[in-house]
Amino acid sequence: MTERPPVRRITDAVTMRALAHPVRLSILEVLGLSGPLTATEVGERIGESPTTCSFHLRQLAKYGFVEEAGGGKGRARPWRMTGVATDISAGDPEAEIASNALTSLVLARHLEWHRRWVETRSSYPERWRRAANESSYVAYLTVDELEQLNERISDLFLGLGTERLTDPSKRPAGSVPVDTVVLSFPLAVPDPERDPEAGP
C-alpha cells in the first residue's frame, strides 16, 4: 500500500483565516507546481510585485505553510512548501465559519480553472481533450462506505506519487499538472433511528 504523506490537520480559525487569502493561495499553488521559487519568481508567475509576495511568503511561513529552501538573500531567497496534504477540520463554531470561508474560496479557484479549461480546450491536443472528464455520480452509501470511498480515491492519487509535486525531476516526460476536484457529500440528513452510527 502506498505510504501516505504527513497530513497537517488545521482546526483553529486563526490559521484558516491566514490561509484564506487569494494571493497566499496563489503562492501555494505556484510553489506546488514549480517547486522552490524566490519572491520575485513567484510574483512573475502570479502577477504580483516581489514586495507583496515577500510579505505573504513571510505570513505563510509564520503559520507553517512554507519555509526557506536555502540559499540566496533577501528577496532572492527561494521558498518551498512544507507539505502537500492539509486537512481542514473545524474545532469550534468560530473555526466552522473560517473553514466554510476557506473551502468556498478554494472551490471558487478550482471552478475558475475549469472555466479557463472550457474556454481554451480547443487549443489542446485531441487526446488530452478526450482524456479530460466532467462526471457526476449519485449513490446510496452508508457513512462507512463514504469514508472508504474517499480513502480509495486518496490512495489512487498517492499511488501516482506525491513526490512529483515536490520534485520536478520525478515527473514523467509529457506530464502536465491535472486538477481533479472530488466533492462527496450527503444530499439528505441521515435518520439517526435507522443509522445510529452516523452521529457526530
Tally of strands: 5
Measured between the Cα atoms of the first and last residue, the distance is 29 Å
Q: Which homologous superfamily in CATH is the superfamily?
A: Winged helix-like DNA-binding domain superfamily/Winged helix DNA-binding domain
Strand content: 5-15%
Q: CATH class, anyone?
A: Mainly Alpha
H and E order = EHHEHHEEEHHHH
Ranges where pLDDT stays below 50 over 5 or more residues in a row are none
Helix content: 40-55%
Report on the biggest sheet: 3 strands, antiparallel
Shape: globular
> What name does CATH use for the topology?
Arc Repressor Mutant, subunit A
Which structural class should the secondary elements be placed in?
A: mainly alpha
| Gross CATH architecture | Orthogonal Bundle
Calculate Rg over CA atoms: 19 Å
Separate helix tally: 8
Mean pLDDT level: 88
Number of domains: 1
Biggest sheet strand line-up: 2-4-3
What does this structure look like?
The chain is mainly alpha-helical and 200 residues long. It has one domain (7-198): Winged helix-like DNA-binding domain superfamily/Winged helix DNA-binding domain (Arc Repressor Mutant, subunit A), CATH 1.10.10.10. It has eight helices and five strands; from the N terminus they run E-H-H-E-H-H-E-E-E-H-H-H-H. The strands form two sheets. A three-stranded antiparallel β-sheet has the order 2-4-3. The protein has a two-stranded parallel ribbon with strand order 1-5. Helix 1 (13-19) runs parallel beside helix 5 and helix 3 crosses helix 4. The model has no long low-confidence stretch (mean pLDDT 88).
